[in-house]
């Protein structure tokens, strides 16, 4: 049944029987005609281009490969692997799985443990975690299970599935397959993400019993958990143990973790001292550490530290990204220095050709939250002139700002544009904003607008009892029947309170 479940899922996508998908560590193969170079003047570069043009997951890569094979063309396995790697890099997991499936179903190949690991990862991405579990269960080779277990465990961590992750660890331990640090780090990340910090030291104890070395991530997770559960002294003990570990080099990430513990405990002087030490360990080849420290300095309201690290990050080779600008702008807004944020925003505008609306949204939000409505509107118009394309966050910021300033006509217009994007994103407007709109319609007796509004939010599953009550009151006042409203309430499984019951009964008087 497990086989059939996995096959059925993939057949719907590729109309082809599912075989194996492979990671791209070497897949061992016996002599096979597939290892021959391409014939008939059709190069592998052309094959890659043709497959990469299959933008829609509904267009099958297997069909393309099969047609070529039937025409007598032969394929280089290494090139198919390169194409698959490119597809994975481009997040085209459906087509990556199709190609790997086709490769496995050809005669003469033997999957390596690394191939099984990436196959499992692709199955989880394309078909879901349950299908990944089925595939892992069918693996009979211990080396393959050992290679693939981390992908399955990572799937559990992503789903916050503590029960199954713990069961998998017990099973793997019983089989003697856990011989590296990585699964234990995954478990610690899971416990931190699910607010079970007290379990992290138990993981460390198990690592010590198994004589497994801790790496930097292990110590950082352990230190952070101890800070949450037992306080500063416990975190400092972990840090001292890390310093004494001859296999570990303390870097900026560890020091930033310790500084974070101090900040949460209100030990500002200690935090600043550790952050200064962390600055000395920053890489001249990577900006990541700079922005971790910038964020921590912002949490200390240390403008000088934020700007010092920002200027220091510019000395690192490579282009400063929009995400980097968003980080420093957010930090300056957080500490209340909008003037400095404006200066850096203008710096960004002068250096980027493609207008990323997410950067301007940071400043737009600061203006609206601080009641600087004119500046916000001016910036919004400016971004449109520069070619910026508003996203759902843009409309949410404008909507909330205009509601706060009681400019409801503009807020409603922004709401309509924001709602038009709901099909394409997970964003949902806050209940407070939704109620503000409903209250406005009720206050001004905008009966038709209110009816349109409630049907819209019902369609997106956003309706609530207070919203329906507002509309029921309007229907009652206008002496209009409310049958449609009651039907929507039933579909939304809205439970009535006493006030709502009284309103419904009033329609029958």
UniProtKB/TrEMBL annotation:
Pfam family, any one: PPR
- Which residue intervals correspond to the PPR repeats? 356-390
Instruction: Name the source's superkingdom.
Output: Eukaryota
Q: In its keyword annotation, does this UniProt entry include Transport?
A: no
- Report the GO molecular function annotations: mRNA binding
Say if the entry is tagged with keyword Repeat.
yes
- What is a single cellular component term in the Gene Ontology annotation? mitochondrion
Specify residue ranges for compositional bias: Polar residues. 28-38
Where is the stretch described as Disordered?
Answer: 21-41
Give the coiled coil ranges.
none
Q: Which UniProt keywords apply?
A: Repeat
Q: Which family does it belong to?
A: Belongs to the PPR family. P subfamily.
The protein's name in its UniProt record = Pentatricopeptide repeat-containing protein
What species is given as this protein's source?
A: Quercus rubra (Northern red oak)
